[in-house]
């Protein structure tokens, strides 16, 4: 493995009843002026909004609000949030929602402490200089944003979707109660599953030598997702299934299973270009792109794919070549996506070939992407074309 | 799984060259008066002592020393360390060594900030009220103390060996360079392996319902230990093997694979009573006790043992009953201990039956032990007797 420094200071709360017991004390240690950030109002329908308000009111907290955060959160919304924090002298941002709300809140938290436009940080033209304290209450199992320091923001004017973060943007605390995901619609549960699985794949297909423990840890998460996702999708009120899926999403991207590994991340970069133009769900885009990326790159290290077949999907290796096992692994991945009802092709979102060239160019505008194999514009174009 | 709060703030550095690059900056952010704690002088023979002194001197740090920390660190040594810290106004304790040195340093760190005798905290008669900042440089892969808040101290006068800790005693930073374990003797490498494996078993055999991801994560660590330990034991200068073993030891007990699980910990409690009287190596005692604990408890949940057989040892389940698989798992565990040269019986340390009753009584003096199954004095006695 590569030399690494790992530190993840987030206090993670899991399970029912934790919000009721510990939210007030966690929040008030940072102050009593809180910006509540949320999305389209599903937390009002589920009752979570009222619960949080009640708890914070009882604790003497003054609440300000930023609502309407988009599924792919926009820079304009981030700017609004920064303004409120500055004007109202906010002590803590409390993000209540899924990855989009959390990512938006991280951008706001960094932006408040940065003199220029926070977009500079996402464009890699500046580094964060600090951040307002941030706490989260998660309502969607997907991005892992509740226990990492990164996030993705879309600049709708320039059609750019960029990831960014800083050591300052780890949430101080995150509350994950599986019951808060009961009301997540079927399609969002599917997309969330695709997203967390993609995070595992980005780790798993890496060029770093000698990482036996990391490999088995990543396999553990993939296996658990594959074994449990369908139950959560089919039975939205199944506490155990929702809990497992939520916990997998956190562990897939909190840095604990991939220390010292240089992940790939090409598929994320490619998907960001698709959804920057077409505004499709991130998880859906990933489910479409990943199998084609696998086909395109299986010869780079077929034994990695073979391990996926044997260690995750339980394929009996006897009498099969490594290449055969690699093909079986990819077929199994496709089968899983199909089984849970994920999209298979760009055509499922009515996306044709007219913007392929633009997306491929944009994906590599900072240089080649991916680490398992470096991909140039032609490679990305080929993968996108195969995904049509 | 159980509702939980997880937080592990330690900054973990892994790999060669990290000490040279980052030790000075990590240390000096806490001050410039450092107590260097170490053991019997192996760090002098290996050159690590000189390296650390050189780096800290260059950084303008004043170094005080506490050396001679015992393999089962003693309360008297802890008291010495507390005195030095108070007299010399120490800013940071830097523990350089294995688990014993680290555990001793944690006790010192808590003791400095506690008005009474720090032993109160280990006796559960008081809680820690703070701790001096602590950093570590690990030289032995075993206890996981480099990334957790616990430690074990022996009171030689009362023949008591007790574990304790607090949220304050997570190391601020830990440096794990596999090269610093090259000089660890063969027997210590074996004991270290037994120790980290025992930590995994303590997690794995738990009574908590519905923990699929935790199960696979723990299996990942056990599997990696089983697959890689022999190489490190046989080839002490094999960087990859040492790195894997070291990394397994950290991950086995930093809380990341067992969130929301109520571990068992009976074998640790039993072993502490053995080594409190006979001063045998902790890992050796665990290797002796665990297979007998497994025999004694396999009927509590045979399918857990069966999973160990299939998921870790790759046993083909077809045509075998759960009970048969459970027996195979225990046989495989015994086989592994034998293969790496671990002790098999208390007789290997010339321990007879004359203190069994005393050890059994002491083990349950705070009440029944274990969570997979609660064990009373008779149970402990039976397991000890089987271990003779």
Automatic annotation (TrEMBL), chains A, B:
InterPro entries: ADH_Fe/GldA, ADH_Fe_C, ADH_Fe_CS, BDH-like. Pfam families: ADH_Fe_C, Fe-ADH. Residues 9-178 form the Alcohol dehydrogenase iron-type/glycerol dehydrogenase GldA domain. Residues 189-387 form the Fe-containing alcohol dehydrogenase-like C-terminal domain. Coiled coil: none annotated. Signal peptide: none annotated. Keywords: Oxidoreductase. The keyword Oxidoreductase applies. This is Iron-containing alcohol dehydrogenase. It comes from Alicyclobacillus dauci. The lineage of its organism: Bacteria, Bacillati, Bacillota, Bacilli, Bacillales.
